[in-house]
């Protein structure tokens, strides 16, 4: 549902006008954040695994350090690289702040430098650095130190191995298929790569376990390490949803802390804000925006000396993705896109030149946008139009860029049909859809979702967009979709869901609670005839506002899913996933 | 008693929004309203020849009923209705309606007079009769609205309490973005307001203006926030303080509310009066000021924008008005029958006992009571009033068909056609866009023109007496057709649109209507005057009128006394002094040849043309030119004219000669003029003119000789 | 004061009331609670009985029927008005019967035969003049009024029988009855209420605030989230605008969706409806079932040009078929939807079911109506697709013939017979005397009485 605003270039143009700031800068932003999300999750996985191995292989303490140094170096390199000239400035200033103990500090300074520091000085570093997180946590650069601290135990030679190993996995994983940030290749792996049978710690994406303090701490740590502010929840949360984040649109991430461009590429920052403000909404729009942002990032990227693009770039993107994830949880489509990019990056042979590597990546991204989104839409509308016969009265819900595209195509093809646009508070995206359709000259009727059972009596088909198709055949989409499908079923009106295959994802979910998104509750407040009932709902402790974003529609409400691979029943989503894995 | 019922009706309103305010209201004087059941213009001509605008049916209910319902529901307890044109009809209607029942919570007083020529007159009369005791609501008889003005009223009263006579009027606007169809192009307004005090600083009709100017001083008036708004729709509902009436009395030049507002705003410093505004988001309010608005408002009505004033609500309590509402906004009165295969697409209202044939396709239309419609008829945005008979295979698009019209087989009405009362068209005829057919011949206009000015409603009936029955033109209205096409075939196309437009009100500005009308009616006026600026002063208009009159007189050789009559009436219309009349008359006559043949006439041709005219019109002059002073006035204007056209000084003598011989001017008057009067050196030159000197000489001699004779 | 003055005063009041009804609901649904309307109507009718000129029950009934007709016409969506009129008519009948000595059921006993012979109220009876009648009728109406006063409390009283501790209850929009019901329960039990806001009017917000004030844990959700959240709800409690003769509902829109969602998760759906909301009306989409307010509520005027090209609908009511409803809680206890028709037959006299005077509003051959071709579903509508059987099926719904609802085609004559267990009288008149409990018991018995 609600693949609102822009989708492929054409749409973008029109979308711009209601997008706060123009497409161009946004586009490249988008590209960036993508790699990150994927990367994150994997990186964490590595850590877990490595911790396990820790006990067994207890040797080469020294190497640890060096490795860590390496790692630290890596950690900072992006800083150096991304803002080229003043690369070296930050560290020196920072050091005194971070590390109270004199000894390591001088040594740590060179650390960022090209050469790996000598083990000697760093040896004691655990001592001094350990406390550092405590006192210095708030200080802007603390993350670096703390990062070091947190990883110290972890990094071993084994860890290096693990890392390499993880990367292969990841490659396989991303080969297997585009999963979703939530539970990444781990899940995909045991599906796609059955030979790996050892059970993997199934990692929930942290944004669905807010109620678990441990998870929160972990998240906070990671963000700190990546120098990304943690976004605080807003308002009273409905008991059923205490495991989800609830942000206020009025408090965007960057409001209080300014994010140095050394940490996050400006285009990504912008994108993040556009996400959190809902300026860029709808999974297609968001993915496209993301990809473009990442293109920008890649263009501006320069591989630091004696670093490997394939690895460094990936690492570099980590903070971006966790930043975007803070702004608004990633959508399935974005997850898949990120996976894809990440795969492409890691596929780049180390000996390959930077320039051609970058151009190659950019091409890949463009190709992805083109075939997965633009062409997919074309194909789908081809199929869908067959389903639209003259005299049809078609009901659509919210503003799905794909469905709009289909209808417009059909109208071009001189099909005679009317459209019923169903809309729902608080987003009222349907109005946007209405404007677009009416502009094309399609005759429309507009009702709110509460009137759906009245209007459905005259409807002949229901076309719905989707946010993601889950492996168990459930359709995840804008909240309200399931309701429409329900009523349609009751009136025996066929329900057709349109969805590009790149939105298919591995996750399984049977209700709208486990993994969902809470939007700003203040949106529900409304003023009628001068009185605002919910004005001070915050002050009334027994009163809560729930502004859900998605819901899942059980497959038995959906008669048909129209994808770029053809028309299939919901239940065969996993099959499609499998097929895609195989042919990749 | 009215007061009591009103109180009940509202205390009944339980927790309704407007309870609080109105309760106090009852302690105060009952709320009064002035309803002007007369539009003082001729937009709906020729329909309004037979039916005053306030009674025209909109969604099968007379407009005035909507207005009254609006007033009543907003808590008005006493309404004064001022009628002028066809006041008796309006009166009858009202007496029959529920408003005059003893139980009506809103007591209605009907005041009629044929003397009202404008809103100004009415309010002056209000003041004279001292009808108003407190704040009152001022609306026109063609306003359709469901806005609850109570809040605005409260604000208004607060202001008045705060400082007594500062705020005199609160205008009510409705938010609606530009391009909205029920925004009337003509009174598109641009308002500058003080966002805090809601005070109107500048009020301007944007229609027809290329660029807008705002007087600087409004921004100096000491408030920090201003709003310049173009997203407002003027509902033509205004809450006025009693002194509004007085103000109208004080300033005779206030004719319309527009004048008033501008006046107040302009000399705000002097009078210290202010105008405020109230912008409402919900509710609906619009004035049916032309056919386009009629179209827009009707469709809004059908689409229920004016809820609870919906067709099926039958608020006017007329028997048999009840109708039922079903999907796609289809309303059916009792006894409606549809033939097989007929489709009511959407937004259709069908009045009582109307029967519709088979395979018709009806959408966005209103059909009145007792109509019969044949088979295979296509109606789109058609507004069909009562007792209309439409034969088979007819197509109607966005047109208005008045009562008692008969449309024969195979007629097609293109957009914006109007068939006035009892017209018959067809069979097998296609009326092009903007055709207007009426039983009244366009020429009746002329007779009407004399005693009637900007008001269709002042359209006097007795003109029919004068009507000379002309044969219908079958080419225009079909073989069985009855009625006259309201345009002169001789006119160029622009002329035709002119008429359609002033009905459908596309571009014309309210002030322009007057002469656009006269153009439309009195054949070929030179296109020059059409483009005139909105504020063309009366004298100009008068001159134009006179000129037209004379011309027509010439074409249809109307007797001079008739011409005089007309000119007189015009004189009153634009209240022109006799002096001006003479001067203008003279000027017109002298300029006449130029109108005919353009300005590049040689003196010789000019005189050749002019002299016969003078002969013809001598009586007219004689009628006016009596006292010695008159002669002088004539001469001076003649002089002015010739000063402007130096090329034609030669003609001057001839003219003088003629006028002298025709005894329009007396010699001594001429002498006197010649001797004195020389003001500018140019005029002195003029007097040096050979011919003139000769003429004077000749006169003197003639004098002497005549004396000699004795 | 002199009679004439009384007359005018009366008619003024009536006019005022009518005007009130007409403008009623220009905003969010009905401006005032149905309860209020019911009371006002009854009070007005009492006034009429007291002040109007009438000699015999027949005249009075005529007068009341006439006024009633106007009232219902004024705001067809306000069914309570019609219901109260019917109740009063019924009262008059009873009082008349009583004062004539023969008890109501007496002339109901032979009703079947009577109905066949003399269709409609046989004018010979109701004509006699009883001096005491007026007083009795007024007294009875007063009792009716007191009963009306009590309804909400009576319903609220039963709350604890239906709500157990910390369950999750969903409701929609705002219903004063439900509000009272929940608050009453909240005094003893802790539970969580989820309120669907019910756009565009968002009465839900009002509801939520007032509930949370009575510190019930309340959550407001958008209408779109009803289905999403339903899986965690274990009871749905709603109010309604009307209970139809078939046990269906005419409730604020969105309710149907809610009911379907509840059904899908097999969550019990409980309807709190005082008796005066029972209406003999049957659901069909003819004239007055739906009520549409200004599209402005849905799509603001500021939307500009596209408005002229778009059709915007803003219905106020939904039809909820009986099969989706688990239980009715009225002021006389809980009933299954299947039982409603019975209650109605007790509340109103069959003669009064149709207040309309068939002659005034006849309708043309709607069977011939054709709408935009669109699919038609086995639901109540008079959409007619050319060449679909519906056109004939929906005909009877649409064409209102004088004898519609007439005793002849009354729902099963047995009904009358079982009614002759003198129960209706017992509870209409007796209900106010005997305690609620034994009344319930009464109805239980009634339930058991076989219907053949």
- CA-based gyration radius of chain B: 29 Å
Q: pLDDT below 50 for ≥5 consecutive residues: which ranges of chain C?
A: 25-30, 104-110, 118-123, 358-452
Fraction of residues in β-strands of chain B: 15-25%
Q: Domain count of chain C, please report it.
A: 3
What is the name of the CATH superfamily of the largest domain in chain C?
Translation initiation factor eif-2b, domain 2
Report the mean per-residue pLDDT of chain C as an integer.
73
What form of chain B results from the Cα inertia axes?
A: globular
Rough outline of chain C = globular
Uncertain residue ranges of chain B = 1-26, 446-468, 488-501, 506-536
**What is the arithmetic mean of pLDDT of chain B?**
76
Distance between the termini of chain C: 55 Å
Proportion of beta-strand residues of chain C: 5-15%
> Number of helical runs of chain B?
24
Using a beta-carbon cutoff below 8 angstroms, give the protein chain pair with the largest interface and the number of residues from each chain: B-C, 69 and 57 residues
The major sheet of chain B is characterized as: 13 strands, mixed
What's the main sheet of chain C like?
A: 7 strands, mixed
Helix % of chain C is: 40-55%
Structural class of chain C: alpha/beta
């Amino acid at each position: 549902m609600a693949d609102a605003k822009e989708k492929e270039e054409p749409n973008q143009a029109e979308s711009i006008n209601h997008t706060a700031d123009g497409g161009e800068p946004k586009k490249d932003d988008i590209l960036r954040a993508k790699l990150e999300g994927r990367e994150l999750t994997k990186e964490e996985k590595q850590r877990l695994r490595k911790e396990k191995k820790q006990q067994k292989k207890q040797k080469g303490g020294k190497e640890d350090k060096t490795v860590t140094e390496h790692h630290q170096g890596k950690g900072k390199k992006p800083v150096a690289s991304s803002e080229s000239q003043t690369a070296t400035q930050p560290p020196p200033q920072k050091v005194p702040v971070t590390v109270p103990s004199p000894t390591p500090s001088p040594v740590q300074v060179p650390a960022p430098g090209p050469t790996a520091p000598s083990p000697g000085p760093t040896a004691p570093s655990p001592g001094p650095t350990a406390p550092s997180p405590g006192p210095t946590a708030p200080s802007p650069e603390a993350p670096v130190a703390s990062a070091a601290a947190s990883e110290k135990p972890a990094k071993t030679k084994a860890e290096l191995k693990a890392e390499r190993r993880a990367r292969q996995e990841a490659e396989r994983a991303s080969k297997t298929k585009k999963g979703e940030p939530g539970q990444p290749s781990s899940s995909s792996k045991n599906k796609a790569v059955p030979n790996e049978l050892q059970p993997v710690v199934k990692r929930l994406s942290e944004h669905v376990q807010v109620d678990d303090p441990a998870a929160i701490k972990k998240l906070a740590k990671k963000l700190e390490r990546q120098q990304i502010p943690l976004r605080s929840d807003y308002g009273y949360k409905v008991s059923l949803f205490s495991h989800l984040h609830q942000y206020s649109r009025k408090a965007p991430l960057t409001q209080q802390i300014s994010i140095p461009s050394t940490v996050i590429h400006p285009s990504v920052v912008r994108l993040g804000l556009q996400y959190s403000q809902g300026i860029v909404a709808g999974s297609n729009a968001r993915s496209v925006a993301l990809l473009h942002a990442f293109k920008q990032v890649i263009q501006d990227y320069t591989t630091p000396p004696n670093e490997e693009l394939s690895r460094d770039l990936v690492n570099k993107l980590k903070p971006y993705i966790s930043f975007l994830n803070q702004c608004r949880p990633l959508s399935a489509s974005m997850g898949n896109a990120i996976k894809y990019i990440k795969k492409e990056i890691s596929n780049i042979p180390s000996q390959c030149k930077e320039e051609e590597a970058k151009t190659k990546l950019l091409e890949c991204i463009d190709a992805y946008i083109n075939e997965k989104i633009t062409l997919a839409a074309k194909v789908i509308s081809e199929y869908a139009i067959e389903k639209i016969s003259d005299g049809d009265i078609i009901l659509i819900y919210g503003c799905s860029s794909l469905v709009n595209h289909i209808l417009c195509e059909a109208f071009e093809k001189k099909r005679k049909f009317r459209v019923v646009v169903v809309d729902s508070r608080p987003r009222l995206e349907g109005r946007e859809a209405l404007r677009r359709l009416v502009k094309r000259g399609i005759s429309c009727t507009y009702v709110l979702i509460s009137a759906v059972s009245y209007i459905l009596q005259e409807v002949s088909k229901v076309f719905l967009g989707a946010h993601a198709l889950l492996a168990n055949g459930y359709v995840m989409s804008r909240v309200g979709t399931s309701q429409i499908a329900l009523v349609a079923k009751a009136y025996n009106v066929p329900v057709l869901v349109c969805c590009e295959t790149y939105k298919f994802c591995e996750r399984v979910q049977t209700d709208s609670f486990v993994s969902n998104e809470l939007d700003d509750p203040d949106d529900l407040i409304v003023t009628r005839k001068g009185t605002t009932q919910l004005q001070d709902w915050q002050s009334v402790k027994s009163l809560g506002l729930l502004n859900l974003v998605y819901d899942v529609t059980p497959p038995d409400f959906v008669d048909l899913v129209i994808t770029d691979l053809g028309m299939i029943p919901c239940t065969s989503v996993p099959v499609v996933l499998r097929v895609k894995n195989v042919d990749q | 008693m009215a007061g009591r019922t009103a109180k009940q009706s509202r205390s009944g309103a339980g927790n309704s929004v407007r309870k609080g305010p109105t309760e106090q209201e009852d302690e105060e004087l009952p709320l009064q309203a002035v309803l002007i059941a007369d539009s003082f213009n001729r937009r709906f001509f020729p329909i309004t020849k037979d039916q005053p605008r306030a009674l025209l049916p909109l969604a099968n209910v007379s407009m005035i009923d909507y207005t009254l319902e609006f007033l009543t529901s907003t808590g008005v307890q006493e309404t004064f209705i001022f009628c002028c044109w066809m006041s008796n009809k309006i009166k009858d209607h009202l007496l029959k309606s529920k408003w005059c029942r003893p139980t009506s919570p809103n007591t209605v007083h009907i005041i009629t007079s044929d003397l009202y020529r404008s809103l100004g007159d009415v309010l002056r009369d209000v003041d004279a009769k001292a009808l108003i005791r407190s704040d009152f609501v001022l609306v026109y008889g063609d306003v359709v609205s469901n806005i609850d003005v109570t809040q605005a009223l409260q604000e208004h009263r607060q202001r008045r309490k705060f400082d007594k006579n500062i705020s005199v009027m609160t205008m009510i606007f409705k938010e609606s973005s530009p391009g909205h169809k029920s925004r009337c192009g003509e009174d598109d307004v641009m308002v500058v307001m003080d966002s805090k005090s809601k005070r109107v600083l500048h009020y301007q009709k944007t229609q027809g203006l290329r660029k807008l100017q705002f007087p600087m001083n409004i921004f100096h008036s000491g408030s920090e926030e201003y709003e310049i708004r173009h997203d407002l729709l003027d509902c033509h509902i205004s809450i006025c303080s009693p002194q509004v009436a007085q103000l109208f009395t004080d300033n005779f030049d206030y004719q319309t509310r527009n004048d008033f507002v501008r006046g107040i705003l302009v000399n705000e410093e002097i009078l210290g009066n202010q105008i405020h505004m109230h912008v409402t988001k919900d509710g609906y309010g619009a004035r049916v000021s032309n056919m386009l608005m009629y179209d827009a408002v009707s469709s809004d009505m059908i689409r229920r924008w004016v809820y609870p004033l919906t067709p099926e609500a039958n608020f006017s309590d007329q028997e048999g008005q009840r109708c039922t509402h079903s999907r796609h906004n289809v309303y059916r009165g009792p006894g409606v029958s549809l033939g097989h295969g007929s489709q009511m697409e959407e937004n259709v209202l069908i009045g009582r006992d109307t029967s519709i044939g088979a395979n018709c396709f009806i959408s966005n239309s209103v059909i009145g009571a007792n109509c019969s419609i044949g088979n295979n008829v296509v109606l789109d945005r058609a507004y069909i009033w009562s007792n209309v008979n439409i034969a088979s295979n007819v197509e109607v698009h966005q047109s208005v068909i008045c009562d008692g019209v008969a449309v024969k087989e195979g007629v097609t009405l293109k957009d914006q056609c109007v068939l006035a009362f009892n017209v018959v068209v067809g069979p097998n005829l296609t009326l092009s866009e903007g055709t207007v057919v009426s039983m009244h011949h366009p020429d009746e206009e002329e007779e009407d023109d004399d005693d009637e000015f900007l008001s269709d409603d002042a359209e006097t009936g007795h003109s029919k007496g004068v009507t000379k029955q002309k044969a219908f033109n079958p080419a225009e209205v079909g073989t069985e057709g009855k009625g006259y096409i309201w345009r002169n075939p001789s006119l160029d196309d622009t002329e035709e649109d002119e008429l359609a437009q002033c009905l459908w009100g596309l571009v014309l500005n309210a002030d322009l209507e007057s002469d656009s009308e006269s153009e439309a009616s009195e054949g070929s006026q030179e296109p020059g005057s059409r483009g005139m600026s909105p504020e063309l002063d009366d004298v100009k208009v008068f001159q134009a009128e006179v000129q037209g009159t004379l011309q027509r007189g010439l074409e249809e050789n109307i007797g001079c006394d008739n011409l005089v009559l007309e000119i007189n009436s015009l004189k009153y219309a634009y209240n022109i002094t006799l002096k001006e009349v003479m001067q203008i008359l003279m000027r017109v006559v002298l300029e006449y040849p130029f109108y005919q043949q353009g300005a590049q006439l040689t003196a010789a041709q000019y005189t050749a043309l002019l002299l016969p005219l003078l002969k013809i019109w001598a009586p007219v002059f004689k009628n006016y030119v009596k006292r010695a002073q008159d002669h002088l006035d004539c001469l001076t204007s003649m002089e002015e004219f010739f000063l402007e056209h130096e090329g034609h000084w030669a003609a001057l003598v001839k003219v003088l000669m003629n006028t002298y011989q025709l005894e329009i001017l007396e010699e001594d008057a001429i002498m006197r003029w010649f001797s004195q009067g020389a003001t500018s050196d140019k005029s002195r030159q003029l007097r040096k003119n050979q011919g003139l000197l000769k003429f004077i000489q000749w006169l003197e001699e003639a004098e002497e000789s005549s004396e000699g004779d004795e | 004061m002199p009679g004439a003055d009384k007359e005018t005063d009366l008619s003024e009041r009536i006019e005022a009331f009518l005007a009130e009804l007409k403008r009623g609901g220009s905003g969010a649904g009905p401006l005032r609670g149905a309860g209020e309307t019911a009371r006002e109507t009854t009070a007005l009718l009492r006034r009429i009985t007291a002040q109007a000129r009438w000699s015999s029950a027949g005249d009075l009934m005529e007068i009341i029927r006439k006024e009633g007709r106007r009232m219902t016409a004024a705001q067809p969506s306000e069914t309570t008005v019609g219901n109260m009129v019917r109740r009063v008519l019924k009262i008059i009948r009873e009082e008349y019967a009583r004062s004539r000595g023969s008890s109501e059921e007496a002339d109901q006993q032979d009703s079947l035969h009577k109905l066949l012979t003399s269709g409609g109220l046989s004018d010979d009876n109701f004509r006699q003049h009883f001096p005491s009648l007026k007083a009795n009728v007024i007294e009875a109406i007063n009792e009716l009024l007191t009963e009306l006063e009590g309804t909400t409390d009576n319903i609220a009283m039963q709350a604890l029988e239906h709500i157990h501790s910390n369950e999750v209850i969903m409701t929609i929009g705002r219903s004063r009855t439900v509000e009272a019901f929940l608050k009453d329960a909240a005094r003893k039990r802790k539970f969580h209420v989820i309120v669907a806001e019910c756009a565009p009017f968002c009465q839900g917000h009002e509801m939520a605030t007032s509930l949370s004030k009575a510190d019930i844990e309340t959550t407001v959700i958008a209408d779109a989230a009803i289905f999403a959240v339903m899986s965690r709800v274990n009871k749905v409690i709603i109010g309604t605008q009307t209970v139809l003769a078939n046990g269906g509902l005419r409730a604020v829109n969105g309710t149907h969706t809610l009911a379907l969602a509840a059904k899908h998760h097999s969550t019990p759906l409980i309807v709190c409806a005082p008796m005066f909301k029972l209406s003999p009306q049957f659901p069909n989409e003819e004239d007055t079932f739906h009520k549409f307010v200004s599209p402005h509520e849905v799509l603001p005027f500021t939307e500009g040009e596209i408005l002229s090209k778009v059709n915007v609908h803003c219905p106020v009511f939904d039809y909820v078929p009986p099969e989706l409803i688990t239980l009715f809680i009225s002021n006389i206890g809980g009933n299954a939807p299947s039982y409603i028709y019975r209650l109605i037959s007790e509340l109103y006299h069959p003669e009064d079911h149709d207040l309309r005077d068939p002659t005034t509003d006849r309708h043309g051959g709607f069977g011939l109506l054709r709408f935009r071709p669109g699919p038609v579903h086995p639901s109540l509508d008079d959409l007619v697709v050319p060449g679909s059987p519906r056109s004939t099926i929906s005909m009877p719904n649409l064409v209102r013939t004088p004898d519609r609802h007439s005793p002849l085609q009354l729902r099963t004559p047995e009904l009358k017979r079982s009614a002759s267990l003198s129960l209706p009288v017992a509870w209409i008149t007796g209900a106010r005397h005997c305690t609620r409990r034994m009344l319930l018991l009464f109805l239980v018995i009634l339930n058991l009485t076989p219907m053949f």
